[in-house]
Write a structure and sequence with these properties.
Nucleotidyltransferase, domain 5, alpha+beta, seven-stranded mixed sheet, 408 residues, 18 helices, two-stranded antiparallel ribbon
Length: 408
């Protein structure tokens, strides 16, 4: 969702600001005063989240309009890196589709949304498909590094979409979880799915390789564990991730739950304290030890996966026999097993570096070295090991308790 602003002379105006910055607080409410929520979702198909580029730019348009006035182009981070390599200003489709500024059906910037938010239209570069050769390394870089003028390919630069390109499946209909700091839980479709149900569920449509649409939900993922570990480190308790997993296993199951996507868990800070406050506010036993906090996080994540899985089955009208989990979360055996148990589906875990393999695959496709995405997935499946986690326990009662917490 982050970006840099380039002036008319080609210089970066100021350092980009991270999407977790507190300046985004309250921006959703402000934007929905100038454009109706249903209209915004109907155009963009995006899950409405305060971290989205649209809300960041609206903050600038209303608080620092002079900065936007000096800018010639807004380049999302991958496009900014490509610009620094080539001097070419472009907007790759998959990353543009995350901004809440792109028309999901036409795959072009929405003049209606941009205009209502008061953002200068000139800021938006032309949208190009994933796999576009956007240029060659600039002469300045070639001279400095003494390298040839290699082609620069704009891959599926939203990391989730590169990861989806690497899901090792032959199924046309499949569920994926791209699991890292965020958990992106979704399915690949031929076209966006935008209706009253997807709007009510706040499910997002994002662009993938080949113009595909990925219907998914952004779920806060391993961020909860990472930030909790940092909070304990600041207190002098330096747990490894393996130690935290072991502590979670020893704690009593299904005592307390959180909604991983509650807004208080988005910013950095003392996550264990916020988890305790959430449990207290919702009338649950309050986790007292790191093991109890970790157990609460793990089981809440797995149950949020099930909740999202049920909603995706509902809106697509399809069933899915297995779940593909890719990314760094594949190294977390406990989360993989809990996902299988919670969702009552086999979990196919791997590859770990799915984003990297998807990036490479799109480059090979652009170069004509492989013929299509199906072949890319076949090659990845043949070369990368996966682990299979089968359901081992019934989580139906825990799911009922979880629903009482997140739907109250």
């Amino acid at each position: 969702m982050d970006f840099g602003l380039i002036d008319s002379e080609g210089y970066l105006l100021e350092n980009p600001v991270h999407y977790r910055d507190l300046r985004n607080r309250g921006m959703v409410d402000e934007v929905l005063k100038v454009i109706d929520r249903e209209r915004l979702y109907n155009i963009t198909g995006n899950q409405i989240m305060e971290i989205n580029t649209a809300f960041q730019l609206y903050w600038l348009a209303t608080r620092r309009p002079h900065i936007l006035g000096r800018a010639d182009k807004m380049l999302l981070t991958p496009d900014l890196l490509n610009y620094m390599l080539t001097g070419v200003k472009s907007a790759e489709y998959s990353i543009a589709s995350t901004t809440q500024l792109l028309d999901a059906r036409t795959k072009t910037w929405s003049d209606e949304v941009i205009g209502k938010l008061g953002i200068p239209r000139r800021l938006f570069a032309d949208v190009v498909p994933a796999g576009t050769v956007i240029g060659k390394l600039s002469g300045e870089i070639c001279e400095e590094l003494d390298v040839p003028a290699a082609q620069v390919i704009s891959v599926a630069s939203h990391d989730t979409q590169s990861a989806v390109a690497a899901v090792p499946t032959e199924d046309k209909d499949f569920i994926f979880i791209s699991c890292g700091t965020w958990s992106l839980f979704g399915t690949e479709l031929d076209a966006p799915l935008i209706n009253e149900t997807t709007s009510a569920l706040n499910i997002t449509n994002e662009g993938g390789y080949g113009g595909r649409a990925n219907l998914l939900k952004n779920i806060i993922g391993l961020w909860l564990i990472q930030e909790s570990r940092l909070a304990w480190q600041r207190q002098g308790r330096d747990y490894s991730y393996a130690e935290l997993e072991a502590l979670a296993l020893k704690a009593e199951p299904f005592v307390s739950f959180i909604d991983p996507d509650a807004p208080e868990f988005v910013p950095s800070g003392n996550l264990p304290r916020r988890i305790s406050e959430f449990c207290q506010r919702t009338g649950q036993p309050v986790p007292q030890t790191p093991g109890e906090v970790m157990r609460c996080i793990y089981q809440s994540l797995a149950l949020k996966y099930r909740y999202t899985f049920e909603k995706l089955r509902q809106v697509t009208g399809r069933d899915y026999p297995r779940i593909h989990l890719v990314g760094g979360g594949t190294k977390d055996n406990l989360l993989c097993q809990m996902t299988a148990d919670s969702c009552n589906r086999d979990v196919i875990a791997g590859p770990i570096e799915a984003t990297v393999y998807g990036n490479i695959a799109v480059q090979l496709l652009a170069a004509g070295a492989i013929k299509d995405l199906a072949q890319a997935r076949e090659l990845i499946a043949a070369s990368q090991p996966v682990d299979i986690y089968k359901p081992m326990s019934n989580w139906d009662e825990a799911y009922k308790k979880f629903l009482n917490i997140i739907e109250e």
